[in-house]
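Researcher: Go.
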Amino acid sequence: MVVINKPVVGTPALRVCQWIVKSNEQIPTVRLYVANPAKDFGRVYPTKEERIRHVLETPGEEERKYTVFTRDQFLSLESLPSIPEGVWVISSRTTAGRHIPMMDLDAHTTGYDRDTINRIIDQKCKGMTGYVLTTARGFHYYGGRLLNEREWHRFLASFGVLHYGATGRYISYGLLYGETGLRLTSDKAKPGIPSLLRTIEKED
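Model: Structure:
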């Protein structure tokens, strides 16, 4: 049986997400999908011209295939099933119109250093408990409480200062799909499992 405790520094992404789900009893199911970082937009279309051509020629968003876990199934996971290629990603969308706040903050492409991004996180997320995880290229942020659709849109918009590079695409694709997501596992293209760097406590 998995024991899910409050995350501490070094806690891997899956356990952090299990704690968030455990702390929000209104989450009945959790949706995961597989993404292939080797086919990441910035990797496949490295130049501005290629990106513009792709946007003009692409009819719409790709369909995602979800694996849906019940609350109890997700909380009982020791680890995620192995997959031949790609990484497991957790969806922000939980119940109808409710999201776990998530943000991918890429220090490599936004033009901001890691210290500046951390200060932006503190400023934008001080109203709720949250978890900052470290990755090879920057940070992942998870909020500790659910947001309704309007709150979620405002949350994404609040990070508009980081609209460059991968973070900008993350926000845009989130609005396109109606959800955001963050990886829970690693592969060759995305080495290292994201792990907790620090917890942001809610300020009244």
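Model: Residues 13-200 form one domain.
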